[in-house]
Fold this sequence. Notes:
68% of the residues lie in helices and 0% in strands. The protein has 2 helices and no strands. The two termini are 31 Å apart. The model is unreliable at 79-89 (pLDDT under 50). It binds fe (ii) ion (FE2). Residues 18, 21, 51, 54 line the site of fe (ii) ion (FE2).
Amino acid sequence: MQEDTKDAGIIAAAQRVEHYEIAAYGTVRTWADLLGRDDDANLLEETLEEEKETDQKLTQLAENINVQAEQDAGAGSRSGTQSGSRVESGSRRTTARKKPAA
Ligand SMILES: [Fe+2]
């Protein structure tokens, strides 16, 4: 496995963690709001924004790494997209989606 493909996998895993954290912090921030715990809600909101920023940084990293990983996969024995060789991460698709066989 090429280094860029490994990096793409690591970034994808890190983004799953960030999304989990975003859901958790968003939920407890809302609960703190509802309970009138303003200081806690403010701190949780601050943490939530940090998690979102991290997710955006990972998406930016993934945009380049995913293309590199796809090119590494393409440098092997194929001329087109094969199942399992396309790497996606983050909220944007970086390569054309293969049309499923009819
Ligand atoms: Fe995080």
